[in-house]
Amino acid sequence: MRVLIASEAHFQRGDDGRVRAAGPEDYPFWSSYLGGARQVSVLGRIGVMPPGATSGSIAEGEAVSFLPLDDYRGPWQYLRQYWRLRRQAQEAVSQCDAAILRAPGAVAYLAWHAVIRAGKPYALEVLADPREALAPGAARSLWRPLARRWSRWRLRRLCAEAPVIHYVTREWLQRRYPAAKAKVFSYSDVLLRAPAGEKEMHERFERIRRTSAGERPWHLGFIGSFEQLYKAPDVHLRAVRLCEVQGLNIRFSMMGEGRHRTNMEKLARRLGVAKSVQFLGQINGADQVNHFLDQLDLFLMASRSEGLPRALIEAMARGCPAIGSSAGGIPELLAAEDLVEPGSAGQLAAKIIQVLASPARLRTMARRNLEASQAFRPERLKPLRLRFLEELQMLAAASSSSARSGKRVPLSAELRA
Question: Mean per-residue pLDDT for 224-243?
Answer without folding.
Answer: 93
